[in-house]
Amino acid sequence: MEQNQLNTIVSQFAISGTVSEIRPLGEGLINDTYKVVTAEASEPDYVLQRVNHNVFPDVDMVMRNIEAVTNHIRMKLEQAGEDDIERKVLRFIPAKVDGKLYIVQDGQYWRIMVFIPNAITKQAVDPASSRDAGRAFGRFQAMLADIPVELGETIKDFHNMEFRLQQLREVVAKDPVGRVSEPQVQRLLQEIDARAHEMTKAERMGREGILPKRVCHCDTKVNNMMFNDHDEVLCVIDLDTVMPNFIFSDYGDFLRTAANTVAEDCADMTAVKFRMDIFKAFTEGYLQSARSFLLPVEIENLPYATALFPYMQCVRFLWDYLSGDKYWKCQYPEHNFVRANNQFHLLKSVEDHYPQMEAFIQKCLEA
Ligand code: GN1
Ligand code: MG
To answer: Which domains are seen in the chain, by residue range?
Structure first.
């Protein structure tokens, strides 16, 4: 993207300071991100993002959600007398023309937020930072428990397991790229089928009215938190998917990414293992800040949530593989299959740990 085009975009927001440089930032796969550097030391720098309109069809809803969430969290932090609030919650800058938190330019959606200085993101965590992460995500849910507005569902049925299985079944029936008959695909499809009933129990409990939806982050990966230089969590970022969901989303997706011994696309399946040390630390932290509002049915099903997310991600990666790799960027033809298989191996390792997980949660509750 040309500097002068980027400058034109930035100039439409009510930022302070003089822009001296705009350069690419990070390696996100969904949105394009830039750092906007200002000349004055007294003015903040900013993060400019183009929002992926294909993944998030209703950007206006995304930004209304984010506005409600960041305002509510800022109010909670102020009430709690916290210091350094500007580094603990994101601040988006309104457009000059209409005060909305985004602009549309040539069919593209853009937004800008204040850059949080002296903070880092991580790709992996140790048990100590997992405990902190558990506390941070639990606190995030706790602070949003009484948000006065109803948030929109920014990606419809995003973590709905019944829907994800339906999507898979549809692509299996169509087989658009002729991959369904591969023996490795057939094996995985059988494993998925064998667990389909158990794995869709959240939706059933939801319909029965015994499992509530709460405001969740829905993309609680390790790299969606900012840490300060003492290794403490400052704030939760990447708020596009914040929406009402079962709390299993935030708990399970963090463990899916953080407690895998290897990356989600590691092709050596013997290396894929579920790390109980990370599970224990994260669970302890999460229960510390979330226990006050969680229902017994939510706590009892945390081991289920731990299995659900590798399972769901296996289904989603396999769906994309069978669809011809349209959703996730792939570096080689089997990439999505390797990801799906990796997540299945993680699921099996999680399943081996059910009794230990249950015992540990019980111990936390008694403590
Ligand atoms: C996508 O873009 P990223 O890496 O934050 C996906 C998640 C998946 C993840 C798997 C909007 O997240 O749900 O778990 O890939 N986000 C969306 O790597 O689909
Ligand atoms: Mg992200």
So the answer is: 3-114 (3.30.200.20), 127-366 (3.90.1200.10)
